[in-house]
Amino acid sequence: MSEVLLECDQIVKVFPGVRALDGVGLRLAAGSVHALLGENGAGKSTLIKVITGVHAPDDGRLLRAGQEIHLRSPLDAMRAGIGVVHQERNLIPGFSVAENITLQNPPSRRGLVDREAMTAPARRCLAELGLDIDPDQMVSELSVAQQQLVEIAKALHTDSKVLLLDEPTASLSPQEAESLFDVVRRLTERGTCVVFVSHKLDEVFSVCDTVTVLRDGLSVLESAPLSEHTQDDIVTLMVGRAHAVTAMSPRPVDTSAAPALSLTGLSTASGHRDISLDVRPGEIVGLYGLVGAGRSELVKAVLGLERVTGGEIRVHGEPAKIGSPRQALHEYGIGYLTENRKEEGVFLEQPILRNITVTVWRKLAKALGYVPARRERETAEELVERLGIKISGLAQNAGELSGGNQQKVSLSKWLAADTRLLVVDEPTVGVDVRTKHAFHELIWELARGGLPILLISSDLAEMVTLADRVVVMADHRIRGEVANDHDYGRMSGRIIRIIHDRPVSATSLKDPTT
After folding, report:
1. Which segments cross the bilayer (predicted)?
2. CA of residue 159 relative to chain centroid, distance
3. Cα angle for residues 230, 216, 78 (degrees, 5° grid)
4. In whole angstroms, what is the distance from residue 98 CA to residue 92 CA?
5. Is the pTM of this model over 0.70?
6. What is the CATH topology of the domain spanning 4-239?
């Protein structure tokens, strides 16, 4: 039996009105890849914060190699050999790779930081992970995947025996994810325990060997061999009931209706050329492609965030020259549910009330710009109930919510503004199984009500579930279009063939529902 590096014994953490952890147990063994799973709000983030010294437990014990430890800060956790790579990068863009890797324990000479001496230990850490990254390169010049690997090298430099990876592949392409998995395997070979937090069960089953499942602050499955469970078992444990994939009810689309959004021969400063597509009322048009295909940049050009260099945009039949998302909303009725909810979707340090009503202050305002508190509250309460947002009150800060509820708050502000066209970019990244299904039903119902939706998703199963038509992009071009028959096997084969311009077996993609 492998050595137990860290153990959580009956951990309890209570916040005002919420028992976030209620006697959670966890055993992390050397050389294992341990999946920590659960829906949003199950307690995963709180447990990670306890393990990394951000929160002190209200009861229970943390044990390292059998001895109880007390972590009063992340620095204490680092000294105890515990590292974490968060979903949001934690690097300093203006520093070099070497400076970031050695930041917590920089080499010094005569009391001053020795910058030249940083290169050797940084190069060693990168080499141990098999990474070909220049230690002198600025972090701001690296890709998202490279930055994540630098964070892992940073943990290696501080001699982390336990490394927590929080949604590590959320922003990575399949090829980048495979590189990350190779690094994870190298870490386990040297005796590190990697804790893998993810909602992507296909990845969990391909990488992890041990699993703990949290539900409502309880560990319903604790440090068990993953090989003894199926994906359906795990989903049932996560949601507390048998999981069934429910087909969306029929929703007719009037293909003869005039387009709500029409792009004709559009070119942009980002490199798009001759992009033409239509989105009709009540229609969900999907944009699918690999990372770097130019999907998000295309919608940003429509919203005035990227420069249009040619072609025409028409919204509800009228030529549109849009200079900002604000103009897109107020003049053309376009809402934009962004992929980056923490930086662009919600104001984390502001109350939920303000987040929901920010788009309609002008509509609610009376003389001299006064916004009646009652009307603002009624608007927010209606949307909280409609979307099933789990909150303690409208005064709660959005940053205190789970990722799925933050995304619902982000969506609610566009619904409050009565948008007539909705752009949805990666709506369920980092969202648990039940919340994802609820989002799918919500998007489907919005389209049923006549709202035209332009959907971007890297989740092929999500695309096949929701889209009426799938427009396939690669290298900032439209490569083809597929009418969706909602058969995953057929659709995946057609779409991937278009991307690669060659025959590809549908079985070459893993269906996360199987």
Report:
1. none
2. 28
3. 85
4. 11
5. no
6. Rossmann fold (3.40.50)
